[in-house]
Amino acid sequence: MTVEANERAGVESAVAGSTPARVLAARTRGLRKTYGRTVAVDRVDLDLPEGAVLGMLGPNGSGKTTTIRMLLGLTQPTAGEVELLGHALPGGAGHALPHVGALVEGPGFHPFLSGRENLRRVGAAEPLLATGSIRKAVDDALERVGLAAAAGRNYRGYSLGMKQRLGLAAALLVPRRLIVLDEPTNGLDPSGTREVRQVIADLHAAGATVLVSSHLLAEVEATCTHVAVLHQGTVVAQGELAELLQAGSPALQVSTEDISTALNALRAAKVSARAEGDGLRVELTGTTAPEVLRTLVQAGVAVQEARRHRAGLEELFARLTESEPAAIDAEEPR
Ligand SMILES: Nc1ncnc2c1ncn2[C@@H]1O[C@H](COP(=O)(O)OP(=O)(O)OP(=O)(O)O)[C@@H](O)[C@H]1O
Questions:
Q1: Residues 199/145, Cβ–Cβ less than 8 Å
Q2: 9 in Cβ contact with 21 (< 8 Å)
Q3: I want to staple 84 with a disulfide (CB 3.0 to 4.6 A). Which of 6, 96, 134, 188 is the partner?
Q4: What is the reported pTM?
Q5: Of 261, 245, 240, 259, which Cα lies nearest the Cα of 308?
Q6: Where is each ABC transporter domain found (predicted)?
């Protein structure tokens, strides 16, 4: 479905009083890429809702960069479909790409031009930037990524972090509907990492959609509304971050002083539990929180507090990527 059709469907179902359809900034179906006998990406169905900040996570070699390159039309898929801002690639690239800013590996900057001169060259090739606006757009972008002071120096002498900042500035040169950042904090110091986080937050607040790949789980947890986890070339989980974290941790933490009575009662009820902290951790597989509490109360256990265990992204990521791929979805397509 195109963005326009998506929007129409959303309006229609809202009028009808049901849940509006999601508008997707990017969508892939059955995406596959092979290099000789290496399968880099396989069966990737990615949904990037408009307005989301989606963190793409995965171990080294899991297919993040390859997926991003196919999304941007930089690499031709072996099989499958890509839709960007409602336009099918490769045919619709000319319509979609002017609205997409991207920071991907190896931006083609000229080594003997300054950062500012390089950006002006990029600006001159931007269809959405009028010639008279290039200088100001370049200076604004340099300021935004903290590179104004080094803007006159040759690109060749830039550190890795400065190169990353310049790539980010190029992505931000004109207002975009979608920004795609492949490992944007690679090579950045802590202040650079904070600045990237702020840039992403500003883009999100302005209504842009952001796709960011990262190894930094804490960073993704702090900045993203959605995540997609890749493992061995396939998506093993995707959806809203909060929903995924909840779906990935069906456990209850129970505070009680009657630990042994509680464990015995739960074992008798064939519920998996173990002592943890000042109480128990009870797995909610094959049972529910009310059932667990009923079992404990019936056994005379004094329950002081019971709360759902909230898994961090790190725990979820480890569970998903340390085993064989087993797809889970946080949310059904609406
Ligand atoms: N141009 C290429 N030629 C051959 N193999 C490739 C090429 N590009 C990627 N691959 C392979 O495809 C797989 C996925 O690589 P990709 O770079 O997409 O992973 P990644 O998740 O981005 O990794 P990293 O986190 O290390 O950047 C790897 O096995 C990689 O070696």
A1: yes
A2: yes
A3: 96
A4: 0.77
A5: 245
A6: 26-257
Q: Where in the chain is the domain with CATH 3.40.50.300?
A: 3-246+325-329
Query: Per mean pLDDT, which range of 11-20, 153-162, 188-197 is the poorest?
Result: 11-20
| Ligand 1 pocket residue status of 285, Cβ below 6 Å | no
Structure tokens at 177: 């509907």
Could you tell which of 44, 64, 105 is best to mutate to test the pocket of ligand 1, judged by most ligand atoms within 8 Å of the CB?
64
Distance of CA 83 to the CA centre of its chain: 17
Beta-sheet strands, E only, within the chain? 24-35, 38-44, 47-49, 53-57, 79-84, 87-88, 100-103, 178-182, 209-213, 226-231, 234-240, 251-256, 273-276, 279-283, 303-308, 328-329
User: Which amino acid residue places its CA nearest to atom 16 of ligand 1?
Assistant: 63
* Phi then psi dihedrals of residue 231, to 5 deg: -145, 125
Q: By alpha-carbon position, which residue is closest to atom 13 of ligand 1?
A: 40
Do 256 and 327 contact (CB within 8 A), yes or no? Answer: no
Distance 66 CA to ligand 1 centre (A): 6
pLDDT of residue 135: 94
Region(s) of the chain under CATH 3.30.70.100: 251-309
Confidence (pLDDT) at 3: 37
Assess whether the C-beta atom of 64 lies below 6 angstroms from ligand 1: yes
CATH architecture of 3-246+325-329: 3-Layer(aba) Sandwich (3.40)
- The 3 state secondary structure assigned to 236-264 is EEEEEHHHHHHHCCCEEEEEECCHHHHHH
Ligand 1 in contact with 60 (CB < 6 A)?
yes
Residue 130, SS3 per DSSP? coil
Q: How confident is the model at residue 4 (pLDDT cuts 50, 70, 90)?
A: very low
Q: Is 63 in the pocket of ligand 1 (CB under 6 A)?
A: yes
Local structure of residue 111 (DSSP, 8 states): T
